Amino acid sequence: MTASLVRHRPPHADTENRQSPSARARDWAEIQERMLVPLHEAVHERLDVGPASRLLGLRCGSGLALLPAVARGAAVTGVDSCPELLALARERLLPADRNGGGAQAQLWARLPRATERAPFTLVTLFEPLRRPADGSEEPGRLLAGALPLAARGAAVVLVGWGPPERCATSSVLRVAAKLADPLRRADGWRPAGRDDLEETARRAGLRPDGSGRVSCPFGYADPDSAVRGLLATGLFDAAARATGAEQVDKELAEALHPYRRPDGTVRMPNVFRYLIARVP
Q1: Where are the domains of the chain?
Q2: CA atoms of 250 and 255, how far apart (whole Å)
Q3: Number of Cβ within a 10 Å radius of residue 61
Q4: In what order do the strands lie in the sheet with 271-278?
Q5: Which of 5, 37, 55, 100 has most Cβ atoms within 10 angstroms of its Cβ?
Q6: Per-residue pLDDT of the chain in tens (280 residues, 90 and over written 9)
Q7: Across the chain, where does the E strand assignment appear?
């Protein structure tokens, strides 16, 4: 979540259309969400997700992170407040022609009641944590609502960016912070601190129980796809409100230029860190 610097950019009216909720959701599902697939697979492998697993995916988006768990036989519940993303998740996980085969997957716009399913054995928040400029504790609020649904000893997985020097996308995301109105200290992106995941877990009353790092390069077919995918994250919204969509497109395209390859694709190496914590 593009100016003329990105090849053959259509008129600004198309830029506005790309920013509609449905278009952004599609860009997220088709371009950006897949960048974290190596992370999803590494976590599922490490925690031996399988038929005995009951997984609660917070901010499940369009459901891509839930698919490998379903393939492993786990019962999954995805929660996301975005109706457009949730509709795409239903297309992926609950297709009409499965004749009830989607029974092991449930999707909700809000957290289910504790009586609606057995306690969850795994809770995931695969959206990389960032440090909100307004100081809000949104990950903490999400966990506060979810943890009463988890079994004792259940694993809770939190995800954050790796060190900025190992995340090429950091330099691109700084455009969001630079353009956002500094007087209002809006939601411009800033990298998470080294111990932010542990601190979030401890504040939620969880016990850290291991961590890992996974390489997740961001690869795009062309600069336009890169711009669309990054805009779909929502991290540039405050910058667009402050300076306008065209200015954001222009500066984002310029920031991506060093990562263009001779064949026209865009590739940025990144490392993400995950923390496994336990419900006491």
Answers
A1: 12-167+190-219+267-278
A2: 9
A3: 23
A4: 105-108, 75-79, 54-58, 120-129, 150-161, 271-278, 207-215
A5: 55
A6: 322 222 233 333 344 545 689 999 999 999 999 999 999 999 999 999 999 999 999 999 999 999 999 999 999 999 999 999 999 999 999 876 454 444 579 999 999 887 556 899 999 999 886 644 444 447 888 999 999 999 999 999 999 999 989 999 999 988 888 888 654 444 445 666 778 899 999 999 999 999 999 999 999 999 999 999 999 998 898 889 889 999 999 999 999 999 999 999 999 999 999 999 999 9
A7: 54-58, 75-79, 105-108, 120-129, 150-161, 207-215, 218-220, 266-268, 271-278
Architecture of domain 12-167+190-219+267-278: 3-Layer(aba) Sandwich (3.40)
Asked if residue 71 lies in contact with residue 46, where contact means CB atoms within 8 angstroms, the answer is no
Paired strand residues for 214: 272
**Helix axes of 245-256 and 169-179: crossing angle, nearest 10 degrees:** 150
Phi-psi region of 274 (alpha: psi -120 to 50; beta: other; left: phi over 0): beta
